Amino acid sequence: MRHIVFALIFVFGIMLVIFAGTETRTSAQDPAVTPWEWNLPPGFPESAVPEDNPMTVEKVELGRYLFYDPRLSGNGVLSCSTCHIQGLAFTDGRAVSAGSTGETTPRNSMSLTNVTYNGTFTWAHPALIRIEQQLVIPMFGETPIEMGITGNEEEVLDRLRSDETYQELFAAAYPDQEDPFNFNAIVQAISSFVRTMISGNSAFDRFAFQGQRDAMSESAILGMNLFYSERFECFHCHTGFNFTISTVHSTSAIPERPFFNTGLYNVDGEGGYPAPNRGVYEISGELEDMGAFRPPTLRNVEVTGPYMHDGSMETLEEVVDFYAAAGRNIEEGEFAGDGRENPLKNAFVIGFEATELEKQALIDFLKSLTDDDFLTNPAFSNPFETAEE
């Protein structure tokens, strides 16, 4: 527990230092701004937007520019979009991501698909329950360095302040601020933009919610039935409209914020995972949290490999075989150990017998969750490239 308290103090301490002396009073009722209108897919609830950062058209547009701008990093070489590429469902295709100085992080870049509905943020941090909290870490964190803004704060703000486009965008987003060029405004704007990244027009959606009975192949339908069966058990962790139990929205009665150990490792025979990738244990220090990670959404999973928190599986075929085996047995090397026998493994990871046809059907179903419109939607694209055309 003390680790969680320290983590909270660290996160909110950074935010207090960065945001000291700034105030954002812009609201959706302010006549100078335009309230955001959600256009949600069938079957989707409204997201839980924080009251102190209401959605406006102007903040979303500013956030879109900032998301794609490498000038936001300390050395001016890395943007949010470097690790979150639209065509890859806002992942980066690498096993683990790398920061602006070339230093690698220990974890795989998570998809931003439907990030507005996440119960928690990052792979394994129970204290991060708002996008605004999470954004501070890659922006200002130093272990590892990602955006590398720490120590370069004024230089970053000056780069933005000197740009005529940003002068217009910041003024439009925050008309009540004398000087809107501050990190509170930046965090709020990027958070607003990524909240709009909603994916809900896959073949599965057209089949299940839009009445297009021919949208899915027979193999994908078989895979769907297996996915939701007690035999395969997939749906227990990847459930609901967003295919993850870690989901919170405006009508959530009880927020779901679980973390699971799936038997990926067992390096010491007692459930151990290799540092620094030990899941919630890194925050809580509680043994029961060893190897516990947030189940990600499976939407657009076809394009988000490599898979797992450390990118240690290249293909969906590997992932399906892993769950069929009820864990991973690494026979040699520094990570040797039988994850199938991990005593901390979730009770639903029990394995299953399946023919090759059934495994392929499950993969076909997972591919039916790909939303090509989301991957190419110009509303989420790089505005600098659009301006050059």
Q: Layout of SSEs?
A:
Elements: H1 2-19, H2 57-67, H3 80-83, H4 131-140, H5 153-161, H6 164-173, H7 183-195, H8 203-208, H9 218-227, H10 281-284, H11 316-324, E1 329-330, E2 337-338, H12 356-367, H13 372-376, H14 383-388
Antiparallel strand pairs: 1-2
Helix pairs in contact: 1-4, 2-6, 2-7, 4-7, 9-12, 11-12
Give a quick set of tags describing it.
389 residues; mainly alpha; Cytochrome Bc1 Complex, Chain D, domain 2; 33% helix; globular
Q: What is this entry, summarized?
A:
The chain has helices spanning 2-19, 57-67, 80-83, 131-140, 153-161, 164-173, 183-195, 203-208, 218-227, 281-284, 316-324, 356-367, 372-376, 383-388; strands at 329-330, 337-338. The protein has 389 residues and is mainly α.
Distance between the termini: 53 Å
Helix content, binned percent = 25-40%
Strands ordered across the widest β-sheet: 1-2
What's the name of the CATH homologous superfamily of the domain at 2-199? Cytochrome c-like domain
How many helices? The count is 14
Number of strands: 2
The CATH class of the domain at 2-199:
Mainly Alpha
Poorly predicted spans: 1-28
Describe it for me?
By secondary structure, the chain is mostly helical. It has helices at 2-19, 57-67, 80-83, 131-140, 153-161, 164-173, 183-195, 203-208, 218-227, 281-284, 316-324, 356-367, 372-376, 383-388; strands at 329-330, 337-338. It has a domain at 2-199: Cytochrome c-like domain (Cytochrome Bc1 Complex, Chain D, domain 2), CATH 1.10.760. 33% of the residues lie in helices and 1% in strands. Strand 1 (329-330) and strand 2 form a beta hairpin. The model is unreliable at 1-28 (pLDDT under 50).
